[in-house]
Amino acid sequence: MGSLRRKLHRPHLTNAGTPRAASSPDRPPSAGGARVARYVVDGIASRAPAGATVQDALDFAHAEPQNLSLLLYAEPTASVIEELTAAWDLHPLLVEDLTKGRQRPKFERYGDVVFIVARSAWYLDAHERVEFAEFHILLRPNAVVVLCQDGLWVDGTDVAAFEREEDVVQIGLAWGLMADQQMLRLGPEAVAYKMLDGIIDGYVPVLEGLDVDKDQIERQVFSGDAAAAERIYRLSQEVIDLKQASASLTGVVNAFSTGFERFGLSEELRAYVADLSDHLTRINAEIVELRDALTQILAVNATLVGQRQNEDMKTISGWAAIFIVPTLIAAIYGMNFVGMPGLNLTWGYPAALLMMVVFSSLLYWFFKRKKWM
Length: 373
Known about the structure:
- The protein is of the alpha+beta class.
- The protein is 57% helix and 14% strand.
- The protein has helices at residues 2-9, 54-63, 78-88, 92-100, 160-164, 168-175, 181-184, 188-222, 228-262, 270-333, 348-369; strands at 35-41, 44-47, 67-74, 106-110, 113-124, 129-140, 143-148.
- A hairpin with a 2-residue loop joins strand 6 and strand 7.
């Protein structure tokens, strides 16, 4: 939980690596937050009328079977949640989750309302850091509401920028939802599928970036760089955080798949959701492999550091043994006791020096031969 809180509460960084402000200076203030509203008729999306409320969107959704309303909010405010609660008659527990945010990925059903929490990820290579964005998806018959808790899209794009685009097609391409008419005809569950598909696809470049850094760390370890251990620990933490997001999302996809059987949802979506589950399974396996690889690299690094320390200790011990011989001779003859052999002889001093040199040279040759020096 500690790492999850650290991730969720740290400031987001843009792709350039600079902290992202809570709101852009060129974004006009709004009590309801920036919003993208689209009405879909038989798979074709168009802008909702200016000033359309959540209730208006819900009325449109219920007017005809082929209608679908899509609302997307960037950084939803309390007034947005209040409006949603009144129009959709949301359960108090659901309202509490929407208000507090900072939820783990999950799938819950309250009557005819489905609540999905998912977290997207993207990688900032310059910082070797995985960034996350949290999404709350509300589904009910012919209506979808997406709340971007951090004001960012799945790739870190500012959601408010979507509404500033004039071309609906370009918005659809950026959003990845409104450009697919066939998928929109399948209803709100198809929109949720596209959301989850985009989120899961976003994990792939994150893994690629982490894998590149892992290869760099391997070379760094074998080059003897002392900073490798800290880099391994940092990257391992990013992998753990990514694993928490993806593993929790597995439960969401499984619950989503179960809903097809329990609530009689479209058979056409079964193949898509099955592929989604397979994709997520592969990603989870790659994350585990990457984490194991980093663990092995850390173990190899510890072994290499231990070997280098042993080599250093050999060298230190060898020189200590070499210098102990002249120190011992000098200490003995430095006591100046009466009657010590050779103390009063003319050749005593040169003989002592000669012994120091000879024994030190013999020890140096011995340690050199044993490759301690």
